[in-house]
Amino acid sequence: MPTELEELVDFIVHPNPQIRVLAAEGLIPYSISQPSIFKADNLKPVENLKTLIKDHPKLAEHVLTILINLTGDQEILARVASDDKFLDNLLGYVVLPEEPNANLHSMLLANLAKYDGFKKILEKKQPAQKGLDTDELIVNQLLDLFVKGADGTYNKNADFDHLAYLFADLSKHAEFRQHFLKKQEYDGVIPLDKIKVFTEHKSDVRRKGVASTIKNIAFEIPYHQQLIADDEIDILPYILLPIMGSEEYDEDEMMEMLTDLQLLPPDKQRDSDPNIIQTHVETLLLLTTTKEVRDYLRKVKVYPIIRETHMHVENDGVQDACERLVQVLMRDDATAEEEEQAARVTELEDGEPEVVVDTSRKAITASKDDDDDDDNEIVEV
């Protein structure tokens, strides 16, 4: 005989729309505490949920929240992320300028990117929405959506911040990293140039996702010269500015720094999140893989910046990353081959963010090992 909860799960497909809404709303907490109730009959409840994202916006909001929470489960993640038809629906909705649940769509997409097979999104196309100024490639649409969403000019209901987490996870794949480093025909812009400007954005989610994306892209060693050249991507100011505070430097040191880093205002503040600072320092460590870049980092006085960061950020992860970078920058290059091995971060940190629900029953992201009450957490890459 079915339990009350199992009966409630069945009500999400009740003919009466009001009952569907009430059932879905009541099930939100259980999508975290008892996800097994959605696995009955070979995940039939999950299949039902997937059809309901096209329902009334209020019901769709609850359904998306449940799916966000459930996709923390690997079995459910694989079922949802491998469904091409569902994925096409999701991608079709997130780009609609009047979609009220676009942020939840973005969050679900970010979760689905945890599934390795999700990289097939790189090949997907759909007609471009008027006003998005993009091409038919889905990845480019999501990127332009992320850029336009920053100031709410595209969809007043959404900021699309969580697409930064989507990019961070996709950038674990070489195909995506290389796409982000190549000038696109439709607008003549390198995708990474579009997102680098968000390393000092007010949104923690944007900063975290973009920092992790940049770090992953730094695994493309053949592109390191392109990354640091001031007449190409010029990524260094966007990595270094977030880790700099209001410290004063010797005039000789400051005048050799990159122009964008000189004469900063006295109220300049470094990023408040030590995880983001650590990510940026680890990106610099990746960039020291070749002697040419190491020499350049020394020339533009990256060492004094790292010295001050180590001194002012009391965080074990940050200090360890700073110490490893200093060892590379200050060491003699006589044993360059050995250094290259030491400088390289050998694998991506395999973080598993999960999505939880706050008291307002809106899906939010949080790290599994986080003891803080912050709603937004980093997608560790």
Automatic annotation (TrEMBL):
Domain Protein HGH1 N-terminal: 94-278
Chain intervals for the UniProt region annotation (Disordered): 337-381
Domain of life, source organism: Eukaryota
Stretches assigned to the Protein HGH1 C-terminal domain: 283-335
Bias (Acidic residues): 369-381
Pfam families: DUF383, DUF384
Family the UniProt entry places it in: Belongs to the HGH1 family.
Protein name in UniProt: Protein HGH1 homolog
